[in-house]
Design a protein that fits this description.
Length: about 210
Amino acid sequence: MSAPDPETLPRASESDVARPSKDALRATVRLARAHTPDAERAARDAARLPRLLDACSGHATVACYASIAPEPDTTALITALSDAGVRVLLPVLQGRREPAWGWYSGPDALRSGWRGIPEPAGTALGAEALAACSFVWVSALQATPTGHRLGTGGGWYDRALLHADPAALRGALVNEDELVDSVPLDPWDLPVDLIVTPTRTLRAGGARRAG
């Protein structure tokens, strides 16, 4: 039997109040990212990478997500962490209803998954695998200085983070213009501890803890 089409699988719902404003913001951010010149995007990514690596310093196991253009790049981060001996856990999305993960073992061991997102090609681990990581990078389209984030809309990380070590740090990487004063929230939206842009690193003390 073939794997189910991920587009037909149930996704996390949003409240009737938050959905329109979230959808509008997502569309705006995605359009801005898509119209950013490649050279400008590359410069932002290069400027942000040292900050991302500094944030991961001292962590032996890091969960991350594999970015696809025009998202802020995580490929260089994943490669650098792996080269330094850090174990990197990546989401496995293809054909799955619940969060699943796989350990990164090099670019040749990745396959094209849901919506073309690279993912480990081996046997997937369950949602509980996230508990092994002391740092978790969470995808975001916008973030606030207090650690609230506008996610990509599927609710995947809100479900996945329920299985994280409560002591694990959570981080999000966004562009400078995606750091905003507020984002629309639902009760289940989970905050992060650290926000990294190309020019600064913010510790979010208001949403969860100082980190």
